[in-house]
Each structure stands twice: as structure tokens, then as C-alpha cells.
Amino acid sequence: MTNGEQAITKDQQASDTPMTKDAAKKLTHILYALYAASFLLGITGLFAIIINYVKRADVKGTIAESHFRWQIRTFWFSLLWVVVGAATAVVAVGYFILIGVGIWNIYRIVVGWFKLSDGKPMYQ
Questions:
Q1: Which member of 9, 55, 76, 90 has the lowest number of beta carbons within 10 Å of its beta carbon?
Q2: How would you classify residue 16: left for phi > 0, otherwise alpha for psi between -120 and 50, otherwise beta?
Q3: Do 67 and 28 meet the contact criterion of CB atoms below 8 Å apart?
């Protein structure tokens, strides 16, 4: 086996091993921060959802697993309601939908982040 093949094998092994609980918790904190920052820099929410999907299997079996599900659902439902709000903004009701989505998003980030800080999974 050549050095290149050994390096690939080691990289593959590293990516196949699940994260430690501490690393998963730290990553989840970072993702909550990215979602919170998306209120100012919208693009950070896209980075966060991509990381959620890429690292989802790595956090399986940790408390971060339920937080990842919470974050993913928050992202997609928020996107859905932002589209609905933007489409109905012409008739003014959309502005209320957009305000509601903003409040709901803040609620989801705050509640999730506090539960993560307390070491608790979501949905309990």
C-alpha cells in the first residue's frame, strides 16, 4: 500500500467514527450561533443547515441528535412560512406572517440553546 492509500484509509476511518458527546455538543452550540447570526447575515443559516445534514450521522446517539432534528425542522418550516409571508405581503397579511416567523424562530433558537446548555435533549 502506498502512502496516499494509507492516508485515504485513515481519513475514511476518521469520518466513519461518531463524534464524542463533547464535540457534538460544541458543534451544536456553533450551529445555534449560526442560526442566530442569520438574522443579521442570512447566509449563515444556509451554512448551518448544510452542516446539520453533513454531520447528522456523526451525532447519532448523543443529545445533539435531537437538537439537529429541532434545528432542521426549524429551518425548513421557517423557510416555508417566509415564502408564504413574502407571497402574501402584497395584501398586508404577509407582514404579520413574517413577524410571526421571526418570533417563532427566535423562540426555537433560544429554547433549543438553553436545553443544550443544560445538557438536555429536545422533545422532553
A1: 90
A2: alpha
A3: yes
Q: What is the pLDDT of residue 19?
A: 79
CA 105 – CA 12 distance, rounded (Å)? 36
Task: Tell me the torsion sign for CA atoms 13, 15, 18, 19.
Answer: positive
Task: Name the residue with higher pLDDT: 8 or 42.
Answer: 42
- The total number of residues shown for the chain amounts to 124
Comparing CA positions, the residue from 76, 60, 67 lying closest to residue 30 is: 67
Alpha-carbon torsion, ordered 31, 21, 19, 26, to 10 deg: 30
d(CA 1, CA 19): 28
pLDDT tens digits, residue range 11-70? 444 455 677 888 999 999 999 999 999 999 989 999 999 999 999 999 998 999 999 999
